Amino acid sequence: MKIIDMNLKNNPYKVYIESGILDKACDYISSIYNKKNIYIITDNHVANIYLDRLIKILSAKYIVKSVIVPEGESSKSFNEYVNVLTKLLDLNMRRNEMLVALGGGVIGDLTGFVASTIYRGCPYVQIPTSLLAQMDSSIGGKTGIDFAERKNIIGAFKQPSLVLIDPYVLDSLENRQFSNGMAELIKHGIIGNASLFNKLLRKPCIDEDIISESLSVKQDAVLKDEFDTGERMRLNFGHTFGHVVELEKNLLHGEAVALGMLMALRFGEDLGITPKDIYPQVKSILESYNLPVEEIDYKKYLLKTLGDKKNLAGTVNFILIDKLGSSVIYPLTEDKIKEIINGR
Ligand code: GLY
Q1: Which domain holds residue 30?
Q2: Do residues 227 and 139 share a domain?
Q3: The model's pTM
């Protein structure tokens, strides 16, 4: 078992990574929550595989109720947010009762956003069932929904009270979903741990050790900067361009991040920051995990990055790579970006 200690000043919690931990969820949750009722939020796909099992496990100590939403990104919407709130209130959920997010990133983000607002906030536990959610969205407390065709544009920082990561659940993932999560794992190697990147080249089993090594990169960034105003922005490597192509090309998040990382590497090369030998190494590792690697001209997408939520009052902070395992935050004003687009 590995433990990542999210030792945040106001919101400390632990991330437990253990094969088979799903079956021990009741013990872990009861160590932090002693009320009677618990509410699981999940989607129809994950419900078919894990919901009955989790209800049975938690019923040892709790009255367990559940809300099921349709699977897929479309559930990160106002409609589904309102639907979940309505159902929880219909189920007589009371203030300070606990939610459990059982599912991938959509469920984690939606549940966290509900948890940040219902009764002005309630505790929630993350039990991520996709590699993408285990690698990224289940820790760090970024929650939210999509709006006006923009991803995660409405949300809140709301740290979970506990995260339980079970590598066994990865066995039930389809290949495309597995690759989807690998993009974030590879990203952690590129921005913060060259030795992890080199390990991934050898296609290791994604076990407790690899998950914990990868999450340590995220832990480090979140502990330094919970609210994403500085160090945490490094985790956005590949996301500024990625979010633009994700919606436009209808890709999975990790697939878009793969393309976004390649675009950011070319951008870094043109700015004289990224050494030219990194692109082929990243392209090759992405290809080996069946992620898309088509070369896209980043300049065509620079203008659209201005609409990203990473545009802070007219400045976009691009994350560039200066050597494998190390990143730099590179702020550019809207005017400078427009100059680059116009080739000046
Ligand atoms: N997914 C990037 C972050 O949590 O900051």
Answers
A1: 2-172
A2: no
A3: 0.94
